[in-house]
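Each field is listed here:
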Amino acid sequence: MSNLSNIIPSRQLQGVRYEIRGRLGHRAHEMELEGHEILSLNIGNPGLFGLRTPESMRLAMIENLEASEAYCPQRGVFPAREAVVMQQQERGIMDARAENVFIGNGVSELIDLSLRALLNPGDEVLIPSPDYPLWTAATLLNGGKAIHYPCPEKNNFAPDISELERLITKKTRALVVINPNNPTGAVYSQECLAGLAKLAEKYGLILFSDEIYDQMVYDDAQFIPLATLCGDNLCATFSGLSKVYRACGYRVGWVSFSGALEQSKDYLAALDLLAALRLCSNVPGQWAVQAALGGYQSIKQLCGPGGRLYESRSTIMEAVKKSPYLYLKEPRGAMYAFLGVNTKLLKGFDDEAFALDFLEREHVLVAPGSSFNTQYRDHFRITILPDVETLIEVFKRMERILESMATK
């Protein structure tokens, strides 16, 4: 008989949640094993919906396989880092340099490493609400405290800068900005971004700018790189291949540092140490970076009138207009719709209960809004990646279940 008692997980995990792939995702997998076909709208995974990686990127990987069998430098292969620098400089970030670019196994790994190199126990990080929950999770796992600043729906989900400033304390180390925004689809104006940059400079905060959806904008929305507005503080710009270039499985992301580089040498050295401890990131995928950033930007066609993402987004907005139960702030960027529910017609609506019911009864998987660290429970997120026909079917099922809830 074993003397082993119940194994208790680390207390560091308290408060860590990732419902995008959590309990609901596990239940969806169980249902698939039972033979059900699940429409998974919970994750922005382009390849799942037939959106292919550009062929030039696949060819670049194949042609460099022989050079991919050994470890590469911990910061990444030089052609990939140099391609990131060229993109940054074309956008007006003239102090971008290859030695200040780190390639990682997706942006997810780099978020974790960047926070680990920075935080001491109790240090605070300002994170938007709604957020991409990895930012909150990585802050907690690295001993920090996540302080959520409001991005009110009445403000088109843009940050409330005056309220944000009131949250800053002596323990605040960094300000996270997600633009274009996941989950809301908001694209921040130059005035908003300049206000955030000014605030960071005033209080000596590092800016962590998550720009993974940088070219994924619609209609007249304009993406503005935050680093172009930074003053005398450090800005870390995160991006990668997974969304714009539809290459989630390649697991290639990068972070490029600009601004107060001289004052940040010790921090960057700490990040280099952490990168070395994991040896290097996936080498074959790194060879696709230069082809991606230097090649034809097909995302513009997908996001323009007649393009797959544009038409899917239009279908969602039209379906919401017809529904008495739903409303939506028009997503101006990224690949999601953050749907709100009319709680006058659906009293007592709870996003997690709805998501589970929707999955069990209609076999559609969505992400509850509260999983993005909101204080409210009357929203849920879907991806706009499916084609028009699939989305029409999704909203038929959605209306059925919302109608049944209203009747009850």
